[in-house]
């Protein structure tokens, strides 16, 4: 009995040292290992303890109000990302209208934060919620690509990207420590926790045994690009690592050369031959020079750099644009269907 109490005390100490992301993942993994009866009892106990929390009730009402969520785009970006972190966990499964608003707001904020290297610790926390939230089950594959993109961005920044971004706040999810550089010389440092993501026993793994455990699939949902659907082939229950291998045979990179040729940028195909799909999507003005130096094969003119970055930003905006296009069509805003089909065809032809 004493040994059990000591172990529980140790686990509590570890738990208190983790940040919100680490705590959420740990709790989720433990709860999904419980028998359904135990899990239901835990749910009843938690619901009973929260009945007197008026603030939580108000926040849950806001979280399921489509108008409130849509209005977040009118808020300053730092406040908007904070509000998302507070409200997304309270989205009720089945609330399709509110979910649709979340799916319109989140890509905009994620793009802004990742393009400008802002609030990356909060972006990671948000992605944790998207990967385990039952209301977003059909979209997990897309958000998993966002998570991989974030990790690849961090890797590139740590190789020695523009040091001016080193003053951005950064968090190590495993330790929960926030670091701020007082100098412009050290590289940007955000270290995603390997404990959160890389294990085969982690969130991306599905073990379907409903009589013994409660489990959620994290490999479902539409891919970000046509080629990235290869990552979900096979058993459908494992985390595939092919999309992290650089080169034109990697997942998502198959059509990059054709895409570059259509943009008259094929002379710079050497730059993309050493990148993964996630690294390509995360190229920004701040990381471009460091990436070129890392590949170390040639040089890129300023004009070509601007054109490459503009084209990549359009790739990142595809999801938000398609959501907006869908909304225009379903709401009958007078959008010409032929022009809409042309836009969809143009997206299909991109990598």
Automatic annotation (TrEMBL):
Pfam families: PHAT_SMAUG (PF26034). Residues 181-195 have a biased composition (Polar residues). GO terms for biological process: nuclear-transcribed mRNA poly(A) tail shortening. InterPro entries: PHAT_Smg/ZCCHC2-like, SAM, SAM/pointed_sf, SMAUG/VTS1_RNA-bind. Residues 251-318 form the SAM domain. GO terms for cellular component: P-body. The keyword Cytoplasm applies. Keywords: Cytoplasm, RNA-binding. Residues 216-237 have a biased composition (Low complexity). Gene3D superfamilies: Transcription Factor, Ets-1. PANTHER family: PROTEIN SMAUG, STERILE ALPHA MOTIF DOMAIN CONTAINING PROTEIN 4-RELATED. This is SAM domain-containing protein. It comes from Graphocephala atropunctata. The lineage of its organism: Eukaryota, Metazoa, Ecdysozoa, Arthropoda, Hexapoda.
């Amino acid at each position: 009995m004493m040994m059990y109490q000591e172990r529980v005390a140790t686990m509590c100490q570890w738990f208190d040292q983790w940040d919100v992301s680490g705590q959420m993942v740990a709790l989720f993994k433990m709860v999904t290992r419980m028998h359904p009866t135990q899990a239901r009892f835990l749910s009843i106990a938690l619901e009973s303890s929260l009945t007197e929390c008026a603030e939580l009730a108000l926040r849950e009402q806001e979280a399921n109000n489509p108008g409130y969520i849509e209005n977040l785009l009118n808020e300053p970006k730092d406040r908007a990302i904070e509000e998302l972190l507070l409200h997304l966990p309270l989205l009720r499964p089945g609330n399709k209208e509110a979910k649709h608003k979340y799916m319109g707001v989140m890509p905009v904020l994620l793009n802004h934060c990742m393009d400008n290297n802002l609030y990356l610790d909060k972006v990671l926390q948000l992605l944790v919620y998207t990967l385990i939230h039952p209301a977003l089950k059909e979209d997990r594959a897309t958000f998993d690509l966002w998570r991989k993109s974030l990790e690849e961005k961090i890797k590139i920044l740590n190789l020695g990207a523009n040091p001016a971004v080193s003053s951005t706040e950064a968090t190590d999810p495993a330790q929960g420590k926030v670091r701020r550089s007082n100098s412009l010389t050290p590289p940007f440092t955000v270290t995603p926790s390997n404990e959160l993501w890389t294990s085969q026993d982690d969130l991306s793994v599905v073990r379907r045994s409903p009589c013994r455990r409660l489990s959620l699939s994290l490999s479902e949902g539409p891919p970000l690009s046509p080629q990235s659907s290869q990552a979900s082939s096979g058993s459908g229950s494992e985390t595939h690592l092919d999309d992290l291998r650089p080169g034109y045979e990697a997942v998502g990179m198959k059509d990059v050369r054709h895409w570059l040729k259509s943009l008259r940028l094929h002379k710079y195909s050497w730059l993309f031959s050493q990148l993964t799909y996630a690294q390509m999507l995360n190229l920004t003005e701040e990381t471009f020079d460091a990436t070129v130096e890392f590949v170390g094969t040639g040089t890129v003119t300023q004009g070509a750099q601007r054109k490459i970055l503009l084209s990549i930003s359009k790739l990142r905006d595809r999801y938000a644009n398609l959501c907006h296009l869908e909304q225009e069509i379903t709401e009958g805003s007078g959008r010409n269907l032929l022009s809409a089909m042309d836009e969809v065809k143009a997206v299909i032809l991109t990598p």
